Amino acid sequence: MSETSGSFDSLAMFRRDVVNAWIKLASSSVTPEQQRDLWKIIDCHEWFVRALTCTYEAELEQIDRDLEAALRR
Predict the structure, then answer these.
(1) What is the tens place of the pLDDT at every residue in 15-39?
(2) 7: which residues sit within 8 A by CB, 6+ positions away?
(3) How far apart, in whole angstroms, are the C-alpha atoms of residue 2 and residue 20?
């Protein structure tokens, strides 16, 4: 696997994790500790996306599209 391919796989995984964290925050009854953990996931993964790619805004848009699609299911 090339480094570029691995980066794209990581981006897809991190987008999926962020979408799942947002869904849990919005649709579940979570404890304050769980809420803090979910926000850490979101913040850390978004930082990683920003550090990994020059197209940060495009990646955030993709997260929005993925979230909208997940909520429509």
Answers:
(1) 889 999 999 999 778 999 999 999 9
(2) 52, 53
(3) 27
